[in-house]
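Sanity check

After download, print the first record. It should look like this:
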Amino acid sequence: MSTATSSASTQQACSTGSCGNAAAYRTRSKPAWCSSCIDEILREGGLAADEPFIGPKEWRLTTCLDCGVQAHYRFEYTLDKNAVGEKTCRACYWTEWAKLARQMSGNELPSRIYSREEIIAHLDRNGYDFIRTMVDVNDGNDPIIARCRACNRISAERMGDIGWGCPCSRNVRSASPTSSEAAKAPARNIRSENPASPKKPKALLAESDDAARDWWDHDRNDEKTFRTVTLRATRLCHWICPECQLSFTAKVLDMTAGRHSCPDCEAARKAAWEKEYERWKTTPVAQVPELAAAWADEADPTTVMVAGDWRLRRFRCPAGHHPRISPLTFLQSGCPSCRGAVTRASQKNWLADILPEIACQWHPTRNGKLTPHDVVWDSKRAAWWLADCCGYEWQESPRSRDKYDRLRCPKCKTILGSLTWQDPGLAAEWSPTNPISAWDVRPHASTPFVPEWVCATNPVHVWRSSLSGRSNGAECPECRETGKSKVELAHHAAAEERSTGARSGVVLRDKAFTTRRAWSADISVQIGDRLLIVEYDGEYWHSAPAKVVTDLRKTTDLLEAGHLVVRLREDDLPPLGIDHPHYNEVRVYSTAPNPGRAMDEIAEWLDGLESVER
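Expected structure tokens:
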């Protein structure tokens, strides 16, 4: 079966019942439509497409059929608005919203009018270019049509919304890769998480020291369950109370983290507490030494009962705090201020511990006696910072620095959590020819270009690879030895003896390639103005029919790109049957490898080729 036929047979059909066309995209569980039906859905939402359809989550330039405003919208957004009977155009929406807001306020004349110069300046500060306004007199509620300088997306925004900046420039903290939307700028749109409370990995009950393990019923639960169940599992399991030996069932998460309790024992404790509570309701504060010593309320302690009264009373703790609290709570829990101090001291959520990258920019002289070890990571207190890149000084709170854009330097616009900070060794191999620096991109960002890298061991080795691939451990394709057979490396060594420019594992990219965007060459040597590619085809790996097809297509692509290609075919591998003046095959044997002889045969072929072309 041909590739085209195979692809057509697996194409998803359009979800419109009367349409027999193939869908313009594929999904696993959601509907999908063809290009004609997608345009019809857009018209239902009041839009006309100005660009070809790329995908349901990609921004597409459209024109509103009512107001004529051009703006970018996702197809998924139009689907959501159509479902609730609302037009997609935000210019129309915010214009009507502004009129309604003025009517409800009863003010026909706005209290604040923004001039054109003020609007343009506000846009400029937040990374937008001005296009037009919808009204001549803008009070901040009417929409402004603007274009983001980073991602070129056109949108209808209010003055307040513009102040947040374009979502593409936000650098929300996360360890996860960025979305495709953020790839259109220095990708930064990602899920946020609290650095002081990082997500804990799944822990198995069998490998933990949780007290619930002593309650586990090994007779009624199988061994597999005990070895695989996690501490937060919702699975019902069997338990045995160590005190009364009661056997009962409960969810694992209801028994772990100190929550384990026996139904019978819990009922007995509850009955005992109710009895004790009734006693406290008839016991005056004056009869309890702990309460009497800390009593600081105006009421007579002989007339105030420990429990049963909803009114709060004033106490004085040994530390000098004066909390207003119920007597029973103070008796059981003590001073809330002291408890809070203990909790804060135990958590140690200081800026220096939680956000070291921000802490390293703490101004050494302008913050008085305060240091990053004295300020909590999300403090709202303004502090002075010093940019290590350009010496810029500014004042901002730690909480603000760790929100939204999360800039390392407001002047240079470098970001926090960048590749340079997270992995300086890898950042050192970031090529200066890339459109942005390693300070402006995160380790797992999706970029609109394939980054170029320069090997730190040998600067001659230059190749392109995705950020995620390199951050996940991909090394220089020429320096690495993993994935290369010993015989392949031996032939490369033989090639180096005859030509010092011989390289191993170079990644090649060319517009002439039709099968793949890039191919990896086993051995490559520059011969004049041409590149010689030598591929070693071991019989074990290259005998399968699918591998033969790959070898044919790879060779065809390399020849179309103008390269010279030699394939070292091992043992009984049949010839590929390629008839091209710049292609040659050399027979090699696995039981008696002779890299020197193979290189000599290649040299003879090159000499003959050169004499023919003269």
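If your output differs, re-run the checksum step. Summary of this record's structure: Residues 281-345 form one domain.
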